[in-house]
Write a sequence for this structure.
């Protein structure tokens, strides 16, 4: 698949220490990253923590850009901000990059971990039971 080759080339560059700007597709990271309109800047992962947005190889089948919601030793649990249920799992060794910034549709760069985004991500996680309704309204706006 062509997109997988592009991802693998981005991972190769990140492994060499290059920051890579990568377009995000899909809705799994709404409302914090808008697929098809925004990109992320990825770097080589160092220390991982809950709340980090990462590019990971999950279930031995595909890559995702999702947020870490739990770390148990080498086992990491992920969930997309735009997902209303379900998690995915990977090993620490499956984490290929960490997203550090978001590039919006105007080309402006925003810190993915500024105070507003960190607070918003924590609140959004607590609102999981209501995400379905909030996202339905968001998508219609």
């Amino acid at each position: 698949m062509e997109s997988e080759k592009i991802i693998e080339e981005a991972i190769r560059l990140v492994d060499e220490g290059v920051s890579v700007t990568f377009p995000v597709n899909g809705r799994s990271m709404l409302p914090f990253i808008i697929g098809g309109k925004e990109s992320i800047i990825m770097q080589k992962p160092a220390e991982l923590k809950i709340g980090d947005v990462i590019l990971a190889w999950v279930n031995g089948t595909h890559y995702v850009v999702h947020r870490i919601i739990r770390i148990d030793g080498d086992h990491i649990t992920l969930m997309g901000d735009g997902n209303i249920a379900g998690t995915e799992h990977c090993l620490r060794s499956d984490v290929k990059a960490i997203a550090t910034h978001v590039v919006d549709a105007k080309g402006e760069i925003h810190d993915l971990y500024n105070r507003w985004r960190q607070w918003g991500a924590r609140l959004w996680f607590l609102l999981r039971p209501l995400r379905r309704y909030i996202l339905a309204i968001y998508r219609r706006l």
